[in-house]
Amino acid sequence: MTRSHPDKNFILGIDVGTSGCKVLLADKAGTVRASAVEPYPLTQPRPGWTEQDPRLWWNACCAACRRVLNAGVCDGSDIAAVGLTGQMHSLVALDERMDPIRPAILWNDQRTTAQCREIRQRTRRGADSRRQRHHYRAGLPRRARYSQLR
Q: Is 93's pLDDT higher than 60?
């Protein structure tokens, strides 16, 4: 399992996805011993826009973890590690208290498609080197699905 916790017998996996939070508990052999899914809604305030309240993610994660731990396989003290995955390039705007100030703009939101198209056209006009520099600095190509342009 891990060198730091050889006496622990389980790993907890958490996936905060677009449609819900999925949690599973696996033993040392990799066998899934318990799992739970807590769904949450996706809102589309306009065509091509996708948003979610980030608080839904936390609430669903807590509920799914409780369901897995209440399955009776282990009490939580026997968990060696927690693995966490989340939605891709979603944008969560926070205030100074780290509270969300609006719904998260999700990775599949297309509201910046026109702006991305314009940026790509402008950078094509003089230079692959500009496009390459932007890609190097940002780590991503200019596409509406990446949060750099939201």
A: yes
Contact 117, 149 (CB under 8 A): no
d(CA 105, CA 43): 10
- 82 burial (CB, 10 Å; 0-12 / 13-18 / 19+) is exposed
3-state secondary structure of 18: coil
Q: Which pTM does this prediction carry?
A: 0.75
DSSP state of 56: H
CB within 8 A of 30, min separation 6: which ones? none
